[in-house]
Here is the input.
Amino acid sequence: MHFDKNQKDFTSDFRRTVWWWAVGIVPLTDSLTEEVQHKCSPDVLEGCHQWHAYFNTLCEDMYNNEDAYLPASPRQYRDILECIAASGTIVNDNIIWPLQEWEAHRAKIDRSKAYMTAGINLNQCLNILSRTGLVCEYTSENVIFSHSQHPKIFHAMRTFEESPGIRKTPARHHFTHCEFRQLFKEYSANYDELLRRVSGESLKIAHTIHDFCKSLKIQRYIHFAIIKYKYKGIRVLDFSLHSNEYPTLRVNIGTSVNSSVNSDQKIQIHPHEKDIDAIFSLITARKAAIDEI
Here is the structure.
């Protein structure tokens, strides 16, 4: 299934969320670089390929069969997969958790506000994930996780969970998006990569704003997946990606921490191309206000 980053209409919030996850999965040609491949064992390398294929399959099944997955959210399902990979022991192609440890985790999750509000439990979610190949088997001492369709994925997922800086933002998001450049060292996406999944209209707007800011000597910074523009050390605007509006770019103008700036009121907009002149005027006014400080 092809997920179109220019899609505008969705029949449900669940489908929109799945779509946003799917269009964010990094192509293997970008994430699985030669440098990464050379550091991978054969099992981890094959696991990366299978993991990438699995997440695309999972997104497709979620999108086409939302009733089977509701009322849990896509985020809850991928958090389950990440949690499985984060602990336990790799044996052959399996992840093995001690039964007592897994049961303590399951009970904690089932008592969480998110699960209780949705009226779900962890075992229900695991059963649903079996649709796309996840296998959960109980023995007298252990819980054994495997995958019938993509048996090597846990080799890659475990390596990812042991990668540098994995508990930090934005590294947490790389698991969802199969960003394998994070496997062996901390990795942060650059400007072009952050904008990979925006709609075509949003991409054009982002480049146009950048060129205009550059002409005014307003500098660009990237911090935790947010693209910021500052003048004299004060933020003029920032933009980030949002799936709940079209175009998929949200621009915030006037986001300064300095209360002495006259135009300190934040303006939020999901701009269309017709809004560019107005945005330019706001940026110009913002710069002029900073010059007056």
